[in-house]
Amino acid sequence: MSNTSDEQLHRTPYGGATSNGLIDTHAHLAFEPLIGDIDNVLKRSINARVIRWITVGTNIDQNRKSIALTEKYDNLYTAVGIHPHDAKDVIAGDLAELEKLARHEKVVALGETGLDFHYNFSEQSTQKELFKKHLALAAKLNLPVIIHSREAFDDTVAILERWDGRVEKVVFHCFTGTADQAKVILDKGWYISFTGVVTFKNANDVREAAKIVPLDKMMLETDCPYMTPEPMRKQKVNEPALMVHTAKFLADLKGVTFEELAAATTTTARIFFNITT
Ligand SMILES: [Zn+2]
Ligand SMILES: [Zn+2]
User: Fold this and answer.
1) CA distance 66 to 106
2) What is the Å distance from ligand 2's center to 143 Cα?
3) Ligand nearest to the Cα of 148, by number
4) Would you state the pLDDT for residue 2?
């Protein structure tokens, strides 16, 4: 990629303290194949005006790799957590290690955490216990929480409600629910983040939900390397540059310009994650 220099890549490239440029609020940049080509992945992203990223950890090893990445790139932040899929593999000491990692200066949230009753890779009771431990840690460290919830909406909300007043900032990431579920989330004062799923032909429910989410509660993400948006879906490995397709799609859906949607959702993300650079 020619028009982003290495200097721009590692220092703050554009935008400075303004809201100019998009934020990919949920990427797995420490996953292969993205991490193996990370300079080019981020250069393509900057060229597409996606200029900040939050890379999300799913287990202790991924959290460590994610933090190491944030130390290389100014505009890269991270969330640390243990995915509900990985709940079964938690060993003694992991939670203490998670707390230690969560105190790193580039950590802007805890997660992803929550419940996944679609795959059930871990026992539901094990997932719930681990989820509660994340919420306790978020309250202790005063960090926002990134929620992964799949076919477990009511259980997820019931657990979160017990932390009302202690865990204030909550985002349901890769939202694939209904408008009714979105309304529950908004009524609680929580946030909703959309991936390329909203562009999928069979995702009418998700589009109906997006219509009722105000831009000051809406964030954008890739969840890359997964969830490539239309019309790029045949590109199997998603990456942050492709988030502009989701942004354009949502701008049309909301009846605003791309610039308006970009500015508003970036402001929402900067406030939510307390990103001031
Ligand atoms: Zn997830
Ligand atoms: Zn994820």
Assistant:
1) 10
2) 18
3) 1
4) 44
pTM of the model: 0.94
Per-residue 3-state assignment (H helix, E strand, C coil) for the chain? CCCCCHHHHHCCCCCCCCCCCEEEEEECCCCCCCHHHHHHHHHHHHHCCEEEEEEECCCHHHHHHHHHHHCCCCCEEEEECCCHHHHHHCCCCHHHHHHHHHCCCCEEEEEEEEEECCCCCCCHHHHHHHHHHHHHHHHHHCCCEEEEEECCHHHHHHHHHCCCCCCCCEEECCCCCCHHHHHHHHHCCCEEEECHHHHCCCCHHHHHHHHHCCHHHEEECCCCCCCCCCCCCCCCCCCHHHHHHHHHHHHHHHCCCHHHHHHHHHHHHHHHHCCCC
Cα–Cα distance measured from residue 224 to residue 8, given in angstroms and rounded to the nearest whole number: 22
The stretch 210-217 carries a mean pLDDT of 98
- Cα of 85 vs centre of ligand 1, distance in Å, is 10
Distance (Å) from CA 26 to ligand 2 centroid: 6
Distance of CA 272 to the CA centre of its chain: 11
The answer to whether residue 261 scores a pLDDT higher than 90 is: yes
Distance 122 CA to ligand 2 centre (A): 16
Give residue 5's pLDDT.
Answer: 66
Encoding tokens for residue 164? Answer: 């009302």
pLDDT digits (tens, 9 = 90+) for 120-176: 999 999 999 999 999 999 999 999 999 999 999 999 999 999 999 999 899 999 999
**pLDDT value, residue 277:** 81
